[in-house]
């Protein structure tokens, strides 16, 4: 360090070098280029009256240039400096990431920082500057120790022509190498050319083997100061460390150490991460090391994993939504089932009560019919004289005699009309005495003795008219048939006859005049 010149000591103690700004634009009418040097800085209070451009941490007003179209604002700017040696930057567009505009307007520039955001950034910059002033000496000391310990690895990684230019600038290059490197044809030769290879090899050998150790400090400070004061510190204000251009002049090993050990506050540590990733990834066209290829592979795998994770996250979200929808539908279905069960219980209760009421009504009707029949029997018994009473005849012949007398009386009164029964099915339930010739009739007759209710239930749906022989059927069967007729509204008559001709005669007389579900013969009605 004590070998550094006076100028170098003064430069190393300075902060970011002051720069001059040249603002310019091309007139859209006459196509003339107008420029103006901007030296006066402005404060945040002046932003109310004018827009500004942010150069590092300093604010410069955006000048208005007068031309054919009147006073118009400058569109581009470039920077000029004299420390450590005179130089200038490439033109930057005002309102870009390199020179952002500070304005409340949002439509004039591409990259705009509002005054409120600028105040927040200035607080971060002040904290970072305090940290840098506190850690600067320690950082430079550790970097120098690392440079000396790993030498000549940085020399092997540096670009030989940039190394020669730096040594020539420091007047540390032998005359024979100066004359050799000034031959421009050597630099333009392609890689692999023998002459170029020999020149590069001689330069490397001189720096590695013959370069005086006492000159390493001067060489270190001139190389490290460039990246600190022209990339790392300005990058704090621009929000990006553009360090790839310094890889060939410093080497990847030394540059990585400078990036990893540079003191940063927590809010700005993303600069180190982005710069390190960019350095390890390399630039297109450069020879990639194993580490760079591995980093690219890991980044690719991470990208694929992130995409897969994103897909799984979306699928999981969709599954959760479907599950929630299904749970909602399940809850609604359970509620509907519960309501249906309640309705079913109510309907069963109502149906049970309805059936019970209907059975009571049917029983009452049967009781009324039986009472009417008993009254009719009693009336007929009173009307019959002892002389005409069939009690003197044998009991088993009284029904036959009554049927013969009834048939003779009906035949005498009117002929048998069975056209109303044509094509129908008549069901007779009870014990018949005379079945007659049923095959020749234009309708079908189904007979059942009325003892088994199951057989009656099988025949009843086939019948269009129902006849119940009251004196030759079980009471339970008779009530069941009456209940069925009431439910289906089928014609039903009760008869005391046991002969089919007499039953049909009775049915033919009553059926056309039916006015209720239950029909009675004239004799039954009294």
From TrEMBL:
Could you list this entry's UniProt keywords, alphabetically sorted: Coiled coil
The chain's coiled-coil residues are: 302-380
Organism's domain of life?
A: Bacteria
Keyword Coiled coil in record: yes
Q: What is this protein called?
A: DUF2325 domain-containing protein
> Lineage from the top down?
Bacteria, Bacillati, Bacillota, Clostridia, Eubacteriales
């Amino acid at each position: 360090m004590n070998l550094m010149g006076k100028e170098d000591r003064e430069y190393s103690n300075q902060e970011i070098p002051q720069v001059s700004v040249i603002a310019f634009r091309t007139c859209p009418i006459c196509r003339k280029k107008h420029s103006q040097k901007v030296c006066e800085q402005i404060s945040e209070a002046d932003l109310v009256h004018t827009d500004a451009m942010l150069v590092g941490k300093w604010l410069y007003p955006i000048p208005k240039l007068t031309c054919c179209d009147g006073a118009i604002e400058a569109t581009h700017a470039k920077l000029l400096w004299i420390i450590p040696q005179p130089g200038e930057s490439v033109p930057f567009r005002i309102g870009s990431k390199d020179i952002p505009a500070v304005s409340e307007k949002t439509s004039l520039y591409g990259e705009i920082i509002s005054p409120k955001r600028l105040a927040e950034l200035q607080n971060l910059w002040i904290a970072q500057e305090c940290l840098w002033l506190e850690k600067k000496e320690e950082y430079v000391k550790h970097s120098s120790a690392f440079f000396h310990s790993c030498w000549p690895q940085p020399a092997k990684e540096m670009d030989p022509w940039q190394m020669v230019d730096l040594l020539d600038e420091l007047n540390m290059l032998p005359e024979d190498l100066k004359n050799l490197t000034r031959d421009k044809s050597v630099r333009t030769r392609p890689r692999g050319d023998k002459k170029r290879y020999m020149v590069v090899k001689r330069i490397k050998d001189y720096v590695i083997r013959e370069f005086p150790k006492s000159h390493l400090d001067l060489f270190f400070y001139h190389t490290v100061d460039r990246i600190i004061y022209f990339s790392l510190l300005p990058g704090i204000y621009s929000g990006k460390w553009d360090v790839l251009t310094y890889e060939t002049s410093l080497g990847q090993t030394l540059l990585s150490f400078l990036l990893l050990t540079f003191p940063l506050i927590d809010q700005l540590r993303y600069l180190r991460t982005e710069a390190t990733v960019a350095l390890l990834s390399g630039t297109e066209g450069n020879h990639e090391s194993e580490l760079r290829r591995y980093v690219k592979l890991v980044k690719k795998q991470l990208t694929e994993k992130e995409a897969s994770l994103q897909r799984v996250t979306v699928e999981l979200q969709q599954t959760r939504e479907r599950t929630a929808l299904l749970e909602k539908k399940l809850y609604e279905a359970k509620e509907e089932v519960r309501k249906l069960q309640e309705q079913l219980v109510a309907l069963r209760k109502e149906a049970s009560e309805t059936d019970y009421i209907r059975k009571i009504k049917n029983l009452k009707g049967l009781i009324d019919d039986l009472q009417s029949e008993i009254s009719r029997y009693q009336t007929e018994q009173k009307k019959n004289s002892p002389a005409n009473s069939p009690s003197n005849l044998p009991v088993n012949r009284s029904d036959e005699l009554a049927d013969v007398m009834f048939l003779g009386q009906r035949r005498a009164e009117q002929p048998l009309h069975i056209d109303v029964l044509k094509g129908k099915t008549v069901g007779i339930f009870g014990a018949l005495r005379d079945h007659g010739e049923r095959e020749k009739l234009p309708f079908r007759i189904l007979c059942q003795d009325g003892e088994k209710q199951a057989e009656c239930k099988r025949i009843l749906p086939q019948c269009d008219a129902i006849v119940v022989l009251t004196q030759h059927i079980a009471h339970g069967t008779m009530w069941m048939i009456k209940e069925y007729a009431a439910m289906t509204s089928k014609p039903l008559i009760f008869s005391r006859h046991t002969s089919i001709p007499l039953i049909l005669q009775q049915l033919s007389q009553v059926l056309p005049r039916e006015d209720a579900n239950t029909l009675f013969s004239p004799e039954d009605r009294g």
